[in-house]
């Protein structure tokens, strides 16, 4: 299994949870929300550091395409991903 981490420091917690719910509907995809690690409070930062997405090696090519489409959708609406 390969894990990739996506960061968007301005994406709200609720949006991260929504994204995780969408991604977990894909067969062979699991998601972990990463807690914020910033040592000081900042209103402009998300409560979540990022999202770790793991895709099973046996997942279909359609799953990978759909995963990229969903991530692209959220990136367009909430300002790109950092890796």
Provide an overview of this structure:
The chain is an alpha+beta fold and 83 residues long. It has a single domain, classed as Alpha-Beta Plaits. Helices cover 36% and strands 24% of the residues. The protein has helices spanning 13-24, 61-78; strands at residues 2-6, 29-35, 48-55. Strands 1-3-2 form a three-stranded antiparallel beta sheet, with helices on one face. The longest helix has 18 residues, at 61-78. It is elongated, with a radius of gyration of 13 Å. The two termini are 18 Å apart. The mean pLDDT is 90.
Kindly list the characteristics that best describe this protein.
24% strand, Alpha-Beta Plaits, 83 residues, 3-stranded antiparallel sheet, 2 helices
Number of domain modules: 1
The SS-based structural class is alpha+beta
- Taking pLDDT < 50 over at least 5 consecutive residues as the criterion, the unreliable ranges are none
Gross morphology is elongated
Query: What is the N-to-C succession of helices and strands?
Result: EHEEH
Please compute the radius of gyration using only Cα atoms. Answer: 13 Å
Strand order of the largest sheet: 1-3-2
Give the end-to-end Cα distance, rounded to a whole number of Å: 18 Å
Query: What is the top-level CATH class?
Result: Alpha Beta
Q: Can you count the helices?
A: 2
Number of strands: 3
The biggest beta sheet is recorded as:
3 strands, antiparallel
Helical fraction: 25-40%
Residue-averaged pLDDT, rounded? 90
Percentage of residues in strands: 15-25%
CATH architecture: 2-Layer Sandwich
CATH topology heading: Alpha-Beta Plaits
């Amino acid at each position: 299994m390969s894990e990739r981490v996506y960061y968007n420091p301005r994406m709200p917690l609720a949006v991260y949870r929504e994204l995780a719910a969408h991604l977990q509907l894909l067969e062979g995809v699991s998601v972990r929300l990463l807690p914020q690690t910033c040592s000081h409070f900042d209103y402009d930062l998300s409560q979540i550091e990022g999202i770790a997405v793991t895709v099973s090696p046996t997942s279909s090519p359609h799953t990978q395409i759909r995963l990229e489409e969903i991530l692209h959708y959220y990136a367009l609406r909430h300002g790109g991903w950092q890796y």
